[in-house]
Amino acid sequence: xxxxxxxxxxxxxxxxxxxxxxxxxxxxxxxxxxxxxxxxxxxxxxxxxxxxxxxxxxxxxxxxxxxxxxxxxxxxxxxxxxxxxxxxxxxxxxxxxxxxxxxxxxxxxxxxxxxxxxxxxxxxxxxxxxxxxxxxxxxxxxxxxxxxxxxxxxxxxxxxxxxxxxxxxxxxxxxxxxxxxxxxxxxxxxxxxxxxxxxxxxxxxxxxxxxxxxxxxxxxxxxxxxxxxxxxxxxxxxxxxxxxxxxxxxxxxxxxxxxxxxxxxxxxxxxxxxxxxxxxxxxxxxxxxxxxxxxxxxxxxxxxxxxxxxxxxxxxxxxxxxx
Amino acid sequence: xxxxxxxxxxxxxxxxxxxxxxxxxxxxxxxxxxxxxxxxxxxxxxxxxxxxxxxxxxxxxxxxxxxxxxxxxxxxxxxxxxxxxxxxxxxxxxxxxxxxxxxxxxxxxxxxxxxxxxxxxxxxxxxxxxxxxxxxxxxxxxxxxxxxxxxxxxxxxxxxxxxxxx
Amino acid sequence: xxxxxxxxxxxxxxxxxxxxxxxxxxxxxxxxxxxxxxxxxxxxxxxxxxxxxxxxxxxxxxxxxxxxxxxxxxxxxxxxxxxxxxxxxxxxxxxxxxxxxxxxxxxxxxxxxxxxxxxxxxxxxxxxxxxxxxxxxxxxxxxxxxxxxxxxxxxxxxxxxxxxxxxxxxxxxxxxxxxxxxxxxxxxxxxxxxxxxxxxxxxxxxxxxxxxxxxxxxxxxxxxxxxxxxxxxxxxxxxxxxxxxxxxxxxxxxxxxxxxxxxxxxxxxxxxxxxxxxxxxxxxxxxxxxxxxxxxxxxxxxxxxxxxxxxxxxxxxxxxxxxxxxxxxxxxxxxxxxxxxxxxxxxxxxxxxxxxxxxxxxxxxxxxxxxxxxxxxxxxxxxxxxxxxxxxxxxxxxxxxxxxxxxxxxxxxxxxxxxxxxxxxxxxxxxxxxxxxxxxxxxxxxxxxxxxxxxxxxxxxxxxxxxxxxxxxxxxxxxxxxxxxxxxxxxxxxxx
Lengths: 323, 166, 496
What we know:
The complex is a heterotrimer.
Chain A: H1 2-12, E1 29-33, H2 40-56, E2 60-64, H3 71-79, E3 86-91, H4 92-100, E4 111-120, E5 122-127, H5 135-145, E6 150-153, H6 159-170, E7 180-183, H7 186-195, E8 201-205, H8 210-215, E9 218-224, H9 244-247, E10 251-258, H10 263-276, H11 280-289, E11 292-293, H12 300-318
Parallel strand pairs in A: 1-2, 1-3, 6-7, 6-8
Antiparallel strand pairs in A: 3-10, 4-10, 4-11, 5-8, 5-9
Chain B: H1 3-26, H2 42-64, H3 82-106, H4 108-122, H5 129-151, H6 159-163
Helix pairs in contact in B: 1-2, 3-4, 4-5
Chain C: H1 2-12, H2 15-33, H3 39-50, H4 55-80, H5 89-100, H6 104-139, H7 142-156, H8 164-177, E1 181-182, E2 188-189, H9 202-210, H10 212-221, H11 239-261, H12 267-281, H13 293-309, H14 312-317, H15 323-334, H16 341-346, H17 348-377, H18 384-403, H19 406-424, H20 430-452, H21 464-495
Antiparallel strand pairs in C: 1-2
């Protein structure tokens, strides 16, 4: 924790880069998307590249470097030279992973936090033909099943595992044993598992759910987001339903660079992101992906810190980490 | 030692190593997996046990047939004395290792030029020297350009090269 | 409905659309043929362009790239034993020996014909069987999936070797190697170095195992594989040869259609499965792996047979089943469309346009293949002492370019040495590779099943699909072992 705090101190004020960046940028910038093509991080990266290139004056190439739950891409950016030509489209996983995994490949303080980008809701859903109509009924069913109910997630300590576990905790149940985790890889596989009736429920990124929800193959019970989604005005948020911990969990993207980026680079990106915040391409693409732009409205350093503490606390609470 | 026996011993040795040494050390059991589901070590263990038993079986077969088990692959033709063959193999492996070692130092381009040249030389063809030089320099340069243009791949420049500010 | 189709036909039949598809297919073939550049990569790179295109041409561009690259993988597999994409690995088993016999043209043509037929059948299945295929895709849960994959692995572990025992040992090695990295719950296995935490990717393992041993053989034994002189007719597939392979092409296409529709299986497994079936049911299995045209037909029809049906889950359920259709979902979302059953109600016009375009693209694939073949065919005339080292260089660059990760190059080189050692020990490499690809699917689905059933093994026999596979597994096991015993007896008889 101490390292993280010092890291943040370095990041916010005293970025002491040796690189002369008065003329930054003078060549193409690589934006690393740490998850597969077509997914939320990839689309966000490509949208950012499209809308930011005119303001930064150089092309931005998106590179998908996948593996180890996004940490391979994160590692490659953290290891890259701190010259501002390699940046990361960070997702919540980049903070979640170091917060819950002592063996993490990149610690949360090995970055320069450049800016928040968007918040992407996650949805708690059951099979479209399920008898369960509300979160309350779901919690009731979980209690009665005595651990036999199953939920799909990308892994025990993945973000879509924490969604369900936080809900179980808020409902006064044991997050690890009240329902059985069945791991799948990625949102699309989770959707198929719940739609096919192989698994009872799950709470994962909205991106892979909109089609099945529209068709009635999935039934949304609640959203993990600060506000209701425009496309699903009747589905309540977790905080509205009074689930406090679950209400704090949501998906998000941000822009990170390697540790110790020079002040010029940070300033340049501040300037660029200010313009992106009002860019019509960016806002339009964000709306189409179903995400809410947070450029310029959220202080990324504060937010990353609070998210780290949230997940670190939950991990201790759930027993993934020693107290 | 005849090939089948040697092969069987190698198979047994490898799977035994995995089963008794690597799995206990490198496949920890996390606390959060429920008791009724198989732990992470379950599948590697099953596979190594199958491999180990098949290795033992192949040793038994080799002993029973005294190594002259029927086979319909033609035996590998030894085109030179065995020490020469082993020497060539070691040279090739050294070239691979050299590439991995040199790449961070002198960069991807220079070390791949070296590797291509060495690989062509090791094939023993002395009739096409000009082509050999052309290919070993031209191909890596062309590939750096191609992948750089098409995918924006930045190949490592190399620490030593950077020091001289190139 | 007829009027709808006519309207769609009118809308889709523009010069621009044809041009876009032709360029997409052609670029796909070239990209697929370059080791290290995959169809996924091509589709990903093209995605930003579709932001500015109309929906149908944009999607057709992605489809064209995918189809082209799936065929293109076979070109390098045949000519330099370097499968450009994983799904062409089986094509290398027979294609490369054919090229060495001076019959590269024949092999390339057979690959092209079977790819186009598989592709066309797959498109038809997408159009007419989307609903039942989607039902099937949803019915396949973890236990069914595990049984299906075990069945596929059993069929192929006898592939391209003369010893069942060594084939299974090879498969065990592949299964073990596939467990390196994070398991499905997120805990690390065999993470001996930091790099190994992320596991091993398919491309370096595949190319290391297939392409590099050729170089080491050349360096150590210095027998330059002599290319036989080309005889008249060696660059064409005769009508008789085509007829002999037709059964495998049709079966391969069928396998491709079904495996493509089930999320997460994909063309590599389909190609291996189809190849294994062709070998298993062949009158003379010993010719497989030594230049059997039917092997190419089986493998290529199956991998392109996935190309159309892989869109079934995306269009009929709204959920992509693999990375490529995942990118397509991105293209849908950017256009403000949600794929799924509602698409057929709200945007039927676009759906028909897409279908017609896909059918046309199978035909375009044929011409693009013919066009590129001549250029590529010259590669087989380069002397091996230059070509084989050049392949090594190409592989190193291609593999690095995939993920910009130097560790992948290390895996490539190490697996090359492993592949050579396996050659010396007479252990076949094909089962290793297919086990490496199927291994995670088998393990994960078995563990999922047991998590759902709370440890009850009965779940593996709980549905009709499971029963069918149980019967098939027993059948294949018995026949394979019986044949192995007969083979050994015959050999013994021949010796004494």
